[in-house]
Amino acid sequence: MNILIVNGSPRGRFSVTLQSCLYLEKRFRKHHFEYLNAGAGIDGFEKDMRPAAEAFARAELVIFAYPVYSFLVPSQLHRFLELIKENDLPLKDKYVTQFSTSKHFFDVTAHRFLEENFHDLGMRVIKGLSADMEDLLDERGRKELEDFFRYAVFCAENAVYEKSASAPAQERAPYVSVLDACEKQDGFDTVIVGDLREGDESLRALIRDFGAAFPYRTRFVNLAEFPFRGGCLGCLNCATGGKCVYRDGFDAFLREKIQNADAIVYAFTLRDHSMGSRFKMYDDRQFCNGHRTVAEGKPFAYLVNGDMGREENLRTVLEARASVGHSFLAGFACDADEIRTVSIRLAYALEHGYHPPRNFYGVGGMKIFRDLVWLMRGMMREDHLYYKAHGLYDFPQKRWPRMLGISLLGALMRNRRLRRVIGDKMNEGMLAPYKKVLDKT
Ligand SMILES: Cc1cc2nc3c(=O)[nH]c(=O)nc-3n(C[C@H](O)[C@H](O)[C@H](O)COP(=O)(O)O)c2cc1C
């Protein structure tokens, strides 16, 4: 079978993910492997997609191999997908699957994002594999990789593939400005960060109406005009030295124009089940903040030009980002009613310092970060100091009295006679500390 590996890592031949593909090539010699350097070679594909079109035409099975970057795929691979669509590459009915490496932090949303785009292209989607970045180093990981490859080839040979799990997007009429400006107060700095391009009048009107409805003054920063030199290269220079290798001023721009605001509102036109590759470049480049939740407590909101109601995966990404960052998400506004509601919620959060606790996304995500930073602390110095200072190393759990109490209770419960004697007292015992709080209140 002709296998095409689309290498989405900006690290090109130094990609960890690529090593697993090279391993497969060695293990399955009867198949022919071809490689497309989509991540590191994105500038070349911007100019000419013909080599990609030819490689896709030869392929019987395509494997997108990439690192998970900031809940999704690297901005370079994201851009490559846009180029596939812009150039109308005929990928209909082509078998496709995906292989990622990561620390499993929101690998699910990255996979779902690609699946949604593969379905847009009419491709036949085979469930992918999400590996830990070190899996190739042990026997179990190598076996899982080989099993996955055999399964993918089997599916391609036997016409077994996944149906789309997402509802098809609905065309929406462009938004037209309808809201009158209310009286403005000072006191909070709210920045609207948009990817506002020439001719995108619908998004412009959403931004205008939010500015009109919101009771505080807002300022606008247009990412479309920021002179990015490129997407994150995954070089980890920032992890050791705290500085990005690009000299385009992004670190300062981020800190002085955006992160210093009291509230951040993102404005985008929905593209390819995402905020678009430019916003993804912005997200990935924030790796200069490492795994530190620098915007903790700041409320967020999103102005969305498009049918956000159907974008379950993107909603998950944005809700999860808020929870991991421990920030209040004031919601998504796609029309005038939602602008009003979101604006009220955002103002409330600012005025009352409201930010609810992390949920599963945030608690689970932070535990992955905690373990990673702890292991990599020799290199991720700034992260390590931040995690120490903020009490984020919540392990090992040294709650000895509580653990002793529960061990004792466990021992008693294992005895049938004692269990009967304890009876209802168990419930009372469990509630005792809560009752103490209630009594004191
Ligand atoms: C900018 C950036 C963002 C990342 N985001 C995530 C993430 O959201 N989830 C995760 O589990 N790992 C994340 N990682 C870790 C990479 O996915 C992981 O190191 C991967 O194995 C690198 O593969 P590569 O060498 O093929 O590029 C990120 C790394 C970088 C540099």
> What would you say the CATH architecture of the largest domain is?
3-Layer(aba) Sandwich
Q: What is the number of independent domains?
A: 3
Largest sheet: 6 strands, parallel
Per DSSP, the total helix count is 17
Cofactors, ions, other ligands? flavin mononucleotide
Q: CATH class of the largest domain, please?
A: Alpha Beta
Low-confidence sequence ranges: none
Annotation keywords:
441 residues; alpha/beta; Rossmann fold; 3 domains; 6-stranded parallel β-sheet; 5-stranded parallel β-sheet; 17 helices; 11 strands; 15% strand; globular; binds flavin mononucleotide
Plain-language structure description:
This protein is α/β, with parallel strands linked by helices. The protein folds into three domains: 156 residues, 3-Layer(aba) Sandwich (Rossmann fold), CATH 3.40.50.360; 176 residues, Rossmann fold; 41 residues, no CATH class. It has 17 helices and eleven strands. Strands 1, 2, 3, 4, 5 and 6 form a six-stranded parallel sheet that branches. Strand 3, helix 4 and strand 4 form a beta-alpha-beta unit. The longest helix has 19 residues. The termini are far apart. The model has no long low-confidence stretch (mean pLDDT 95). Flavin mononucleotide binds next to helix 1 and strand 4.
